[in-house]
Amino acid sequence: MQEMTIEECFRILELNPCASFTEVKESWRLLSQIWHPDKHNPGTKVYTFAEQRQLLINNAYDRLKQCLEVELDGVYFPASYAQPAGYAPRSKETTTPNQEKFCAYKRKSEYKPILASEFGAVLQKAKAGDADAQFMLGVAYELGLGGAPMDLSAAAHWYERATKACNHQSSMHRLGYLFLYGLGVAEDIEQGLRLWKSAALHNHVDAQMDLARAYEVGEKSKSSAEESRRWYAMAARNGDEQAAMKLAELPATKTFKRTG
């Protein structure tokens, strides 16, 4: 049986992809109360359907739990992430607050400018379906690089093509930003957060950082210390030093007791 995608798991649990892991657990419990085979008469069609449905519900829950199963200071994050050297949660040492503009978190490796002499070749590759080239074009149009005019609609177009082609995580992250702020596309906060969360769950550190900040300050989402710490923890476990410092600054949240 092919492993379910993150998006399919949220759909089976009848949740928006922006749902927190606490909501995932709650939905799993509620759906299990409805579809658990023990609540239906054996030998009936409803019983057979309930068995199949409960199996899907359990598999979806287990898939999401695998993404968020290791706990540190009450925060769950993917077990595959390596703890960065020197990471000290709840440190008493004071650190300088991050003064970067919200949603301006950009890794230099992702924003290598296209030279004007390269633009034509990159465009041809993008038209041929090369997702990395499509992302590079998106960046060029978003920031006005490589001789391209600053055109946010064109940037959204190329980010979307790369996202649809192969779930290109960097394109997904930047497209989410455009949707959140209505830049080149109609503002759609739910879609923007969904794209960020999908990229973050697939190990995109920039998306993890932006989600953490969004939940920390209540920007384009409800403020949630629990969610903010969760996404900072993911980024920190992926080696991001700023995220580790933020975790030391933020107050600890209640530790969850896992069930199931």
> How is the CATH topology of the largest domain named?
Serine Threonine Protein Phosphatase 5, Tetratricopeptide repeat
- Please name the CATH architecture of the largest domain: Alpha Horseshoe
The percentage helix is 55-70%
Helical segment count: 11
**Residue windows where pLDDT falls under 50 for at least 5 positions:** 69-109, 254-260
Per-chain topology:
Elements: H1 6-12, H2 21-35, H3 45-67, E1 70-72, E2 75-77, H4 119-127, H5 131-143, H6 152-166, H7 169-181, H8 189-201, H9 205-217, H10 225-237, H11 241-249
Helix pairs in contact: 1-3, 2-3, 4-5, 5-6, 6-7, 7-8, 8-9, 9-10, 10-11
Please characterize this protein's 3D structure.
The protein has about 260 residues and is mainly alpha-helical. The chain folds into 2 domains: about 5-65, Orthogonal Bundle (Helix Hairpins); about 110-250, Alpha Horseshoe (Serine Threonine Protein Phosphatase 5, Tetratricopeptide repeat). The protein has 11 helices and 2 strands. The protein has a two-stranded antiparallel sheet. A hairpin with a 2-residue loop joins strand 1 (about 70) and strand 2 (about 75).
